[in-house]
Amino acid sequence: MSAGPTKRKRLMSDINVVPYIDVMLVLLIIFMVTAPLLTQGIKVDLPKAGAEPLPQQDDTPPLILSVDSGGRFYLSIGDNQQSPIEDEVVIDRVATVLRRRANTPVLVKADTSVPYGRVVTGMVLLQKAGAEKVGFITDPQDLQPAKSKKR
After folding, report:
1. Residue 135 to residue 147: CA distance in whole angstroms
2. Which of 26, 63, 80, 138 is 20 to 30 Å from the Cα of 97, by its Cα?
3. What is the pLDDT of residue 37?
């Protein structure tokens, strides 16, 4: 009385690898995104002790980001160079200058009592604005050894 032979579905004995492929693709994307972040660094040209100042190669004035002892940022461009500016303003102004003249030297001038983290924050802001190389402004060091006093 059946209309036809009944077909029984055969059990599948193979491993379904599609979920494993999905997991591998997700892991691949995660590693591709995080790998550049692990090797990212800030490129800085530091002067050697006792080195002579480098001659200015062209007449482009350098862009100077100053950090005072309170950790406030000042930029050597703009209307009021003596007033502190916010982090976003640093990025906007530096990016504008670097778009006009890409070869503008970028320098950081920081107070000796500023925490290291605040100087790094300033360098990251400069990097976000497009500065590829950042230099430091320092006072010249007296390389002559101090004469010891004899009593």
Report:
1. 32
2. 138
3. 67
Give average pLDDT by consecutive 10-residue segment, the chain, 151 residues.
67 80 92 72 40 64 85 80 85 92 86 84 92 80 53 46
The answer, as to whether pTM is greater than 0.70, is no
The residue length of the chain stands at: 151
pLDDT given at position 46:
38
**Structure tokens that stand for 125 in this block:** 């802001």
CB 82 within 8 A of CB 75: no
Q: Tell me which residue of 101, 46, 43, 53 sits closest to 77, measured CA to CA.
A: 101
Q: Which domains does the chain have, with CATH numbers?
A: 44-49+60-136 (3.30.420.270)
DSSP structure class, residue 85: B
Please state whether 108 falls in left (phi above 0), alpha (psi between -120 and 50) or beta: beta
Residue 55 neighbours by CB distance under 10 Å = 5
Residue found under tokens 């062209």? 58
